[in-house]
């Protein structure tokens, strides 16, 4: 293998793809879409109200409105200290809903609730507004109404209102994590887990983008028979290495841009993430895992001729990548169960399983070492096999070779 | 320059090459001929190390194909293609780079060649914006930039219009004049006849004709002579050097046995009848091809 040729191929694969419109669009559009669909509605919903919201109440019980008005008014304030909600009593009686509806439409009130006398038995009431997806508001009103109704019920049974108030104090949970060395650390369990997800997401994204690009570029060169020109000027190993390196760089570039955007948005979250004990192991598993999956992509991708087949391959690989997420809940509940340990030693899942387990509860050192060794050996074998399959596969047209064929190529010395 | 000895290759149950042997000399244009499916492309692919032979030897200047020699080599595959989404100039620089040429030098030479092939204004266009013929010329250029010692062209003329065929032909002759060696395969005998010094005719994986073009013509070719005359046609039955004589009223067709020249025949005929028109046709490679291959070729 000569470095010069590999460099030429790396540069070609990288520069030609970077320049394409499709790449530039996905580079910018993907994060915009992700942010657009996940973060923005959240941010909007979290945005505090800037003006008083007027809530009408049709109280057919005659008992709830008073309590509701005082509690809502005290509990939720605007930034300037004024009450967030102003409660307006609407006399129940003939045509009360029609009146209320007109008030909503004329913007006199923002919403109204209807409290039926049956609320004490059914526990149900209505919220009417032009926009009923303001979850924060419905949530607040619901919980306030619930408190008021409960207080009325308890008072009816002769319980002191002060006791009611004291008893309905909120309870909060604080989690403390005990590390192997016996250190106690305050930690948000959920956030710890985020690191595992981020790892899998980044890992999968890199593999799928570069893998897909790799398969596509092989398919293109095969359909155009460019592969023959390439093979008459470089060896199959040079072509394969050049492609893997070039397209990985491409994937990394994409990640770097996205990470920069991501940090901008999720910077606050990062402050909560604790660097786990075996952070460096994560990097080892990331690199080994990446090379392992890349080899698999080469083996699966070299013999195919059409785009459809390429997509099939990608979907199989995605399944393997995301399996740990599917069983993530079981892992979190019991990260040291026997079957979890067993799955972690299966090279296809080692990187992702470890990524979930390391931040939650560090696996034993022997597990990390044996996982890494198994993965390293598998990666080495996979790369050898990939080289052989690639050499033959890129010249195969039409009928897809059977698994047996692939195996034969992989074992046969080139 | 290129030495091929006893190549054999089977694809499953089909025998593609059944002992192909020939050699190509430095500085010649060598024609690898044969009907479709004869094994021309397989021979070329094996020579270039793209696929492996079951057995046989390929040597370049007495050595197996080395990485070093690959830089002195150019290959134009039969089924054409370039990166469709890439720019013409970039593709040319990339291919030249794989053969060890610096980007700077490649760019310079690429522009020269593009200009010569009247493609310079497309240098920054995407390949897919070019017509098929233009793409083919770009591909041909990609074989020239690194100034190869040996060019292997698989059906270089297929799909080109006569004007562009001419351009390619001229370039090939020019390459030869500057000492380069060219091997090209074709099933169009007229092309081979005009360009080749020596040929190798392959049929069903076997070499059926091999050698200098004039020699082969002499050996296999029978000249045919057409005469229009006034006079007694029976006088023409006994002509020296005629293998076969077909007589009609005032018209005769004579096939020579290859030992006597056409002018010899003319001399004899003039003494016997009053010749109005005399024409001699040399056997074409095409007719030899049909004669040698035609018997069983149903492709």
Q: How is this fold's topology laid out?
A:
The complex is a heterodimer of chains A (414) and B (299).
Chain A: H1 3-19, H2 21-46, E1 53-59, H3 64-75, E2 85-89, H4 96-105, E3 111-115, H5 119-122, E4 126-129, H6 135-156, H7 161-167, E5 176-178, E6 184-186, H8 189-223, H9 226-233, H10 236-272, H11 279-301, H12 307-326, H13 328-333, H14 338-344, H15 350-360, H16 365-393, H17 403-411
Parallel strand pairs in A: 1-2, 1-3
Antiparallel strand pairs in A: 3-4, 5-6
Helix pairs in contact in A: 1-10, 2-10, 3-6, 8-10, 8-11, 8-12, 8-15, 11-12, 11-15, 11-16, 16-17
Chain B: E1 2-11, E2 14-24, E3 29-33, H1 40-47, E4 55-60, H2 67-70, E5 73-76, H3 88-98, H4 103-116, H5 132-142, E6 150-154, H6 162-177, E7 181-186, H7 189-195, E8 198-203, E9 206-212, H8 213-220, E10 224-230, E11 242-248, E12 251-256, H9 262-272, E13 274-281, H10 285-293
Parallel strand pairs in B: 3-7, 3-8, 5-6, 6-7
Antiparallel strand pairs in B: 1-2, 1-4, 8-9, 10-12, 10-13, 11-12
Helix pairs in contact in B: 3-4, 3-5
Provide key terms for this protein:
heterodimer, A: 414 residues, D-Maltodextrin-Binding Protein, domain 2, 2 domains, 7% strand, B: 299 residues, alpha/beta, Rossmann fold, Alpha-Beta Plaits, six-stranded mixed sheet, four-stranded antiparallel sheet, 10 helices, elongated
Descriptive notes:
Chain A is built from 17 helices and six strands. By secondary structure, chain A is α/β, with parallel strands linked by helices. Chain A folds into two domains: 3-32 and 188-411, no CATH class; 52-167, Periplasmic binding protein-like II (D-Maltodextrin-Binding Protein, domain 2, 3-Layer(aba) Sandwich), CATH 3.40.190. In chain A, the strands form two sheets. A four-stranded mixed β-sheet of chain A has the order 2-1-3-4, with helices on both faces. In chain A, strands 5-6 form a two-stranded antiparallel ribbon. In chain A, helix 8 runs antiparallel to helix 12 (307-326). The longest helix of chain A is centred in the middle third of the chain and has 37 residues, at 236-272. Chain A is elongated, with a radius of gyration of 30 Å. Chain A starts with a helix and ends with a helix. Chain B is α/β, with parallel strands linked by helices. Chain B has two domains: 2-218, 3-Layer(aba) Sandwich (Rossmann fold), CATH 3.40.50; 223-281, 2-Layer Sandwich (Alpha-Beta Plaits). Chain B is 33% helix and 29% strand. Chain B is built from ten helices and 13 strands. In chain B, the strands form three sheets. Chain B has a six-stranded mixed β-sheet, sandwiched between helices. A four-stranded antiparallel β-sheet of chain B has the order 11-12-10-13, covered by helices on one side. In chain B, helix 6 links the parallel strand 6 and strand 7. The radius of gyration of chain B is 24 Å and the shape is elongated. The mean pLDDT of chain B is 86. Classes of the chains: A alpha/beta (414), B alpha/beta (299). Chain A binds chain B through residues 2, 4-5, 8-9, 12, 16, 20, 220, 223-226, 228-235, 395, and chain B through 45, 48-51, 67, 70-71, 73, 75, 77-86, 90, 94-95, 97-100, 142.
